Amino acid sequence: MNIPFVKLSAAIAVGLLSLNATAADVRFPVDMPKPKEGQLVHVPPTMDDLEKSQLHPELKRVIRRGHDLFMNTQQLRGKNVFNNMNCSSCHMGEGRLPFAGPVWPAAVTLPDFRPKNNHVNNLEERIAGCFSYSMNGTPPAYGSDDMLALSAYHQWLAKGVEMYPSAPIYGRGYPKLNDPQQKPDYKRGKQVYEAKCSLCHSNDGSGLVQNGKVVFPAVWGDNSYNWGAGIARTFTLAAFVKHNMPLGQRGTLSDQEAWDVAYYIDTQERPQDPRYTGNVKETRAKYDATFHKATNYGLTVNGKLLGDHDNTGSKPFLKPEALKPRTFTAE
Ligand code: HEC
Ligand code: HEC
User: Do the record's keywords include Signal (predicted)?
Assistant: First the structure.
């Protein structure tokens, strides 16, 4: 355990982390794009607001548990989570921040039809999606304590927003950047990565785990999200990076740098897409229209066919039960 010290010291030296700081403690400068005319702007309540609220003490207990699971999803490691992610690794600011995948919109826009799985999804199923792909795992059972707690946390964050709002939601997801001026490039992306990211995420993309605690999550490799995750799409990753990375310096990369570094990360290996049919080209073709047209999965980059393997990371199975197709059969 000697390398981590060097890395952490470096992070401290550039003033991003204080000695005992956890990732969540790092401050965010507020320099996000301003809301546009007609957009729905919502500032979700905080955990302090929860304590002060009049909600039933038992409901508060459930929401607290949901928040705790969201921030430290690693407590479900080996059961539901098989990589180094917490929900908060990608949904910054406790899932509350615009441009950082705020999670509350799901609570007011679902149930709805989702092209990714071709049927009507509710909030639990949407959460299950991030467990299956982003966490390279399998969701807690629908209706279980953990699923109830996570959904309750999402719904609490949406407090006061009307159901099915017609106005577009400010900062929802990771709003897409303008198309890059130059085609995203591996070499330029590598340069950005090594100058601005590898300090924390390491040269081989594996991040940093210290004393069993994930300090910096893996951006590729066995402990990262799998090939089916939403952020594996280059445009989603570019937008995430532009608005949220480097940690503590959001918004400092040019759009081109964000596209380049996203392309670089998206040409590295990661666990297999759980929808894998046994043939990567076939899987790509099957999900090309709805998903893989935006990833490098099943393409040959630098002489390597990406995603051509059976590696599921530390997950001992390929496809979670929750991903089975579903048809609404009632008339
Ligand atoms: C590796 C990154 C990553 C991790 C980890 C992750 N997510 Fe997500 N999540 C995404 C992406 C990407 C989207 C899609 C955003 C978009 O559509 O632009 C998303 C979308 C969502 C949405 C829908 C938000 C909306 O606007 O409707 C919810 C809810 C959600 N995630 C919950 C979770 C939960 C709960 C966890 C932990 C169990 C989690 N996510 C872990 C990347 C991640
Ligand atoms: C100072 C350390 C630091 C630097 C520098 C940094 N990150 Fe991160 N990154 C983090 C942390 C910590 C998280 C998880 C968010 C949280 O827990 O608050 C994260 C999350 C991520 C994620 C989502 C989770 C995952 O592992 O895939 C991506 C992608 C990412 N960073 C990419 C980048 C890129 C690209 C750069 C360089 C432009 C960069 N980061 C620079 C610390 C850093």
Answer: yes
The residue-averaged pLDDT of 321-330 equals 85
**Is the CB of 101 inside a 6 Å radius of any atom of ligand 1?**
yes
Mean pLDDT along residues 153-170: 97
Centre of ligand 1 from the C-alpha of residue 103, in Å: 7
pLDDT at 10 over 50: no
Instruction: Report how far residue 66's alpha carbon sits from residue 148's, in angstroms, rounded to the nearest whole number.
Output: 8
From the CA of 219, the nearest ligand is 2
Task: Assess whether pLDDT exceeds 90 at residue 58.
Answer: yes
Question: What was the pLDDT predicted at 116?
Answer: 80
pTM score, whole prediction: 0.92
Cα separation, 220 vs 46, whole angstroms: 32
Report the atom number in ligand 2 closest to the C-alpha of 192. Answer: 38
Domains of the chain by range and CATH? 40-173 (1.10.760.10), 186-322 (1.10.760.10)
* Rounded percentage of the chain residues whose pLDDT exceeds 90: 84
Joined together, the tokens standing for residue 192 give 């950005």
Q: Which of 81, 110, 117, 134 to mutate to test the pocket of ligand 1 (most atoms within 8 A of CB)?
A: 134
* Cβ–Cβ < 8 Å for 198, 6: no
Distance between CA atoms of 314 and 234, rounded to whole angstroms?
24
* Cβ–ligand 1 contact at 233 (below 6 Å): no
